[in-house]
Amino acid sequence: MSEELKLEELEGISGGSSAQRGRVEIVNCEHACNFRSGPGKQYAIIGHAYAGNVYAYYAKESGWYLLKVSGKLGWVYKDFIAVIG
Fold first, then answer.
1. Rounded to the nearest 5 degrees, what angle is found at the Cα of 63, between the Cα atoms of 59 and 67?
2. What pTM does this model have?
3. What is the pLDDT of residues 68-79, one digit of tens each?
C-alpha cells in the first residue's frame, strides 16, 4: 500500500468504496492519535487525528478505520473511534 492512498484505490480494500461510509469522532486520546499509511502498527505514521474532531470514513479493516484527515487518507485504530450516526 502506498504512503498516499487515493480514493479511487479503495475498491481493493476490504469493505472499501470511494463513497463515504459515515463519520467518526476521535476519542480516547489526550490530544491526538496516530494516523497511519496502512491498517496496522507496522505502517508509517503519516500524521495525526485530533481528539474531538469529526472525520469521514471510507472503509474498515482488521479493527482499523480509513479516514480522510487534512486531505489525506490514512488509518486510525478502532479504540480511538466513535462512529457517529
1. 40
2. 0.79
3. 998 899 999 999
